[in-house]
Every structure is written in structure tokens, then in C-alpha cells.
Design brief:
CATH superfamily of the largest domain: MFS general substrate transporter like domains
Strand content: under 5%
Radius of gyration: 21 Å
Shape: elongated
Structural class: mainly alpha
CATH architecture of the largest domain: Up-down Bundle
Oligomer: single chain
Number of domains: 2
Helix content: 55-70%
CATH class of the largest domain: Mainly Alpha
Largest sheet: none
Length: 245
């Protein structure tokens, strides 16, 4: 209430008195909005909405498709034992997640995401071109699994940093909903795609999805690393890298 009245000094004094000097109170005051879904598609926010929805979808589609149907896919790359494949996958995902924590801290978020999309797409393209059972295919699968687990740390960061406080929950919720929809549709379509065109074409389609994520990230992703949450959600600020199309 004090912040809304512009009485910042009094608000800070209360926080200091009851919580101590180690707790800081930001001066951001949420701007009143209708919080309608249309707000996300206004001229001010639609690029942020498109970026977060599309990059999220483009990461979860190959993730859910490959790992939901892991036993079938594992056989095509020479892993006959489903239990071995599952154990290896879980180990790789743990390693990737831990590596992702380090990379998220060290690298610019935008560059981390761009580089990961390219690496993941290239990995799937090469896998599609190799003969079934190739030892190189197995190594590429290890690289793919580790990388996608690492970069997936960003799905918990970028959407929250891309919107101001008054519509943050709306923006994060919409992007997450789009990712669940994309995962459900793609996972359901996989058996049909595999039956119609085989594993090679399926991998190439997934690579194309990742390239779409790369293009959208390059066009509209802001750089939010090392920025306070208020500044990161400031559309049109110094962190903006959007390209008008």
C-alpha cells in the first residue's frame, strides 16, 4: 500500500525494521491491467508471447517424442535392451541438468538457447543420415540427451523474465499451456509418422522443429542474464533483441 502511494522510504523502513537490512524491497509497482489473454497479443507484448510459446514448444516436442517412445527408438539406434536404454537416459538427463545449471549461470541466456537449438538440430540430422546401429549414432544420442536436458533449465527462467509483474503469471501460464499442447499432439502423431515414413524422416522433422525454435529465438528473444527481474520484463528496454518482421 505504501509503495502504491509513492511512500517508498516508509515502506523500506518497515521492511528494514521487521526483516533486517539483508532483505531488500523493490520499488516496482504493478500497473493495473485487465489481465485478459488479449494483453499478451497486444502490440507491446506479442513478440515476447510468441517467443516464449514457440521456443518452449520446440524444446518439448523432441523431448517428449523421443523419450515417450524410447524403447522403439532405442532399437533403431542399436540399443536392444530397453532397461539399459532407460537407465542410460536417466543418467544422461541428470548430468545434463547439472551441466545446465552451470551453463545457465556462465552463459548469456539468449546465446545458450541459440547454440543449443543449432547443436540439437545438427545432432538429429546426422543421426538421420547414419545407418542403423552405428556406434556414432549412440554417441550422438548421448550428446543430444545431455544438451536438451541442459538447455531445458531455461524454460523455468526465460518465460518468467520476459513479462512485467502484472502479466507475468498470465504469460508464463500461456507459454506452458502451449508446450503441453505441442507435446500431446506430437507424441500422439509419432506412431503414425514412424509407420508412414520411418525413423530417418522422423528425426529430420524433429530437427526442423528445432530450427524453427532457433529462428524464433534469433528474431524475438530478449537477453535477460544479469538483469533485475523488473528490467528483464521491460519490453523495449536495453535488453531487447527483437527483429521486426
Amino acid at each position: 500500500w505504501l509503495l502504491r502511494q509513492g511512500r517508498f522510504a516508509e515502506a523500506h523502513a518497515i521492511v528494514h525494521r521487521y526483516f533486517g537490512p539483508h532483505v531488500l524491497l523493490g520499488d516496482e509497482v504493478a500497473t493495473a491491467t485487465h489481465k485478459h489473454i488479449k494483453t499478451l497479443f497486444s502490440s507491446r507484448y506479442w513478440r515476447r508471447t510468441a517467443f516464449n510459446s514457440v521456443f518452449f514448444v520446440c524444446l518439448v516436442i523432441p523431448w517428449f517424442v523421443i523419450y515417450t517412445w524410447l524403447p522403439t527408438i532405442a532399437q533403431t539406434i542399436g540399443l536392444e535392451d530397453a532397461l539399459t536404454a532407460s537407465l542410460m537416459l536417466n543418467a544422461l538427463l541428470i548430468v545434463g541438468a547439472l551441466l545446465g545449471l552451470v551453463l545457465t549461470h556462465l552463459l548469456a541466456h539468449r546465446k545458450f538457447l541459440l547454440g543449443s537449438f543449432l547443436l540439437l538440430a545438427a545432432t538429429l540430422v546426422v543421426m538421420a543420415c547414419l545407418p542403423s546401429g552405428s556406434s556414432l549414432t549412440l554417441l550422438l544420442f548421448v550428446l543430444f540427451s545431455t544438451t536438451i536436458s541442459a538447455v531445458s533449465n531455461l524454460v523455468g527462467i526465460l518465460p518468467a523474465e520476459s513479462f512485467p509483474t502484472d502479466i507475468r503469471s498470465l504469460g508464463v501460464g500461456f507459454a506452458t499451456a502451449m508446450s503441453r499442447l505441442g507435446a500431446a499432439v506430437s507424441t500422439g502423431l509419432l506412431p503414425w509418422v514412424l509407420a508412414q515414413w520411418g525413423m530417418q524422416v522422423t528425426l529430420l522433422i524433429l530437427a526442423a522443429v528445432l530450427l524453427v525454435g532457433f529462428v524464433v529465438t534469433w528474431l524475438w528473444a530478449p537477453e535477460t542474464k544479469a538483469l533485475p527481474l523488473v528490467a528483464a520484463g521491460n519490453v523495449g528496454g536495453a535488453n531487447e533483441h527483437s527483429v521486426s518482421v
